Amino acid sequence: MPKMTVSLINGSYLFEPSPIGLSIVFIALDFIGVLSNLCIIYIITRTRPLWSTSGHYMFVISLLDCLTCWNFIAVDLQVLDGEINVYLCTFNCCLSYGLIYSRMWIFVCMSVDRAVMLRYPLRYATIVTTKATKVVLGIVCTCSMATMVPIALQLIMFREDGYMCDLNYTSHSPYIYVFMASCTMCIGLIILTYINIFLMVRTQQKKINVIVVEKDNSIIQTHHRKNTDFKLKIKAIRMLLFVIGTFYLAWGPFLSLIIFYEFISKQNIGNHHLTRLCFIMMRVSFSMNFFIYLFTDRVYKKGFKRYMLYLDKNKVQGIGSNSD
């Protein structure tokens, strides 16, 4: 494949227009991402039992994904002409990275939230309140967006192999190293938190041996069973694992290419087809949460049937969400 070049002329990046087929795929996936996340937001807004701590996290993640996909659509429409304004490119890059970076730190907060739920089951409702969750989400999103300001200082590039504005990872700016270190720290904190969760789950599973005494008090039987509350906690953790796992599985290949080619070797990625495949996977991941919630959270599923399909005529009652 011939090498593609990008020229900066009169405040705009000029490049070979994207193939119409690739643009259609990108725009279609972005629109699906916007619609699916708007559906999540609508269902959470209408379903009162989802106005919980976990529901707030689900709502903000969907809002971030919706804005990210909408931002991608703006770039997709620009690259059809083979030209994009530098300032628009800078804004899109800052916004995209700010939203995705916020998502990564929200995953850390959600993981810590699940660990606290298991560690302090009786005090969880008083330790983690919806008001505290809103404050944490506000701080995380504000700080994440603020850290993207240095991108505007000429640390951007137009990635012709993926037709998007991106960080210039070949730069020797200290900000690039700090940004990569913080992303690595997010992943490390999530891994450590889930190791802790795994150990707590194993410990609680061994302790849940319910002793049942028959009426005549003659036989004592030990039954190894989990109580309902513990099952709901396990399902909530499983749902979160699916959400985080889908995100990193979709973004992992591209991040690996960035690290090994541009961040370490300081050279551009040579395989354009592989890069575009990575961008398709990333776009698909934005619409996956809709299906993950549908199959792992019974209250969300009930809200989906009532407010999207109009199949469930009974009012969604305040039963405990699997994500609580």
UniProtKB/TrEMBL annotation:
GO MF: G protein-coupled receptor activity
Name this protein carries in UniProt: Uncharacterized protein
The keyword Ligase belongs to this UniProt entry's keyword annotation: no
Transmembrane segments: none
CDD domains referenced in this protein's UniProt entry, alphabetically: 7tm_classA_rhodopsin-like
Any single GO CC term annotated in Swiss-Prot or TrEMBL for this entry: plasma membrane
Keywords: Cell membrane, G-protein coupled receptor, Membrane, Receptor, Transducer, Transmembrane, Transmembrane helix
Subcellular location: Cell membrane
Membrane topology: Multi-pass membrane protein
Xref: SMART domains: 7TM_GPCR_Srsx (SM01381)
Main subcellular location: membrane
